Amino acid sequence: MDEDRPIFLQIAEQIENDIISGALPEETQVPSTNELAAFLRINPATAGKGVNLLVDAGILYKRRGIGMFVAPGARERLVAARRERFRDQFVAPLLAEAAKLGIPASQLADMIRTDQKETPR
Amino acid sequence: MTTVATVTGLTKRYGPVTAVDDVSFRIEENRIYGLLGRNGAGKTTLMSLLTGQEFASDGRIEVFGASPVEHAGVLERISFIRESQRYPEDFQVRHVLRSAPWFFSRWDEDYAARLVEAFRLPVKRRIKKLSRGQLSAVGVVVGLASRAPLTFFDEPYLGLDAVARQLFYDELLSDVAERPRTVVLSTHLIDEVSKLLEHVLVIDQGRIIVDSDAEELRGSATTVAGARSAVDAFVAGREVLHRDGLGGLATATVGRLGEEERAAARAAGLELAPVSLQQLIVRLTNTSEKEFQLS
């Protein structure tokens, strides 16, 4: 975990990542705050804050007395939100670093194409 | 939110020495507090005052709505694990465990037995013959199994090895999650416990200098490093907690930076590094980090 960002944000992101990757499919139960706290060795209140962030956003929902579940459509919404941020988060810094090193855009595009071929998915 | 303890203008003097100096704060229910500070900062004195083992020179303490001093109704809800607890001569570990329910109405014998096994404590050995780590483990077992609504651990890990410390942290988290209660932990090993804490109190020379949510403290300081001229230009007009330099390079620790400020720093060729809770407290209490880790 990063030192300089609130832990509860990192907890929320970690759960989001699991939903996006499919490790936590829709309608499955997510670990309880106490389980998260014990597993990650963090304060239970902090874990609860992270989970509640996702409940407020409608990504998770509570079933009374049972626990927390991944909401239907959660994955799609998370992917859409991440795509919107992708340009700012990843493309902009990539271009900035390339400009700093004098790598022209065409060469950058070539690198991406070659890399894509080498890492089949 | 329920307040468990309220401290107002609390002062404790020992002759010419003021160990606790006009301190005011509150302890809220079902949270884990870290009471952090250097040796001699006043941590143990403050805990002794809160548990009615010392008389205040001035100010007020209210624990569960009353003064803790000689108040049985308050004291039976408090467990205070001292760094150097004294036991009657010839007491064995099992005698400590057997007498614990006299003091703690919520004592859980089965849980204590599980902990004794986990910490591999020899129950028939005399307390006097225990190693420092085993003595600390006795305190940890009593503190956890007493399940007091307000539990104080004063440097509970002395002599405990890394495995036993991790066991303590894991047990503390899981048991407090299952049976919520308030815990105040004084410690030097700040990095080790920082993620367990919900609230942080820092005491320095008898005064509380930080009283803050642990999450808010995270990221409340950043170290910028780079060419001296760039660092100087960036920190101009900011409060600098710490500054260091070597030749043309410099580092400076400043307060919380927003996204734009971080971007500006990077654009100026500066490296940004987070400041851990331990580093932050070292900066605030003006002591060397080495001294902190060794003490």
Q: What's the CATH C level of the largest domain in chain A?
A: Mainly Alpha
Low-confidence stretches of chain B: 288-295
Q: Taking Cα atoms only, what radius of gyration of chain B do you get, to the nearest Å?
A: 22 Å
Number of domains of chain B: 2
Query: Mean pLDDT score of chain B, rounded?
Result: 90
Mean pLDDT of chain A: 89
Given helix and strand content, the structural type of chain A is: mainly alpha
- In DSSP terms, counting alpha (H) and pi (I) runs of 4 or more, how many helices of chain A? 5
CATH homology superfamily name of the largest domain in chain B: P-loop containing nucleotide triphosphate hydrolases
DSSP, total strands of chain B: 13
Briefly note the CATH topology name of the largest domain in chain B: Rossmann fold
Give the termini distance of chain B in whole angstroms. 36 Å
Weakly predicted, low-confidence segments of chain A: none
- Report strand % of chain A: 5-15%
Second rung of CATH, namely the architecture of the largest domain in chain A: Orthogonal Bundle
The coarse silhouette of chain A is elongated
CATH superfamily of the largest domain in chain A, by name, is: Winged helix-like DNA-binding domain superfamily/Winged helix DNA-binding domain
Named at the architecture level, the CATH assignment of the largest domain in chain B is 3-Layer(aba) Sandwich
Counting DSSP E segments of at least 2 residues, the number of strands of chain A comes to 3
Biggest sheet of chain A, strands in spatial order? Answer: 1-3-2
